User: What shape does this take?
Amino acid sequence: METVTSGASPEYSAFLAAHPDSAPTGDFVLLYGQSDLPERNETFEVQTYLPGWVAIGDDGGGTALLMRLDGSPSVYCCGHGAIGSLDPELVADSFSDWLAADCPAPWMGDDDDYVDG
Assistant: This one.
């Protein structure tokens, strides 16, 4: 875990320290816990295709949630298949504020097909 999150923001590091297991949050978001974080980042080859970033979770529909490993508290999203080929898009300026708001997922617009039928 240390190598995957080295340089992570203090607010995300505090969250991770308190969550050994992944935590479903809000309507769509799964935030990876300590036990899943290294494997998820290895599986999606985040460090290979987007060095200096870490995947902190996903939406269950192909979108990765990412943070920079430069101490920044901002949260970004990017399609798993586009990691490294498209710039991640800003989701929130602050991980802790985003978490406190129950992890809203603005990329999941009303016209998306993510609702169970």
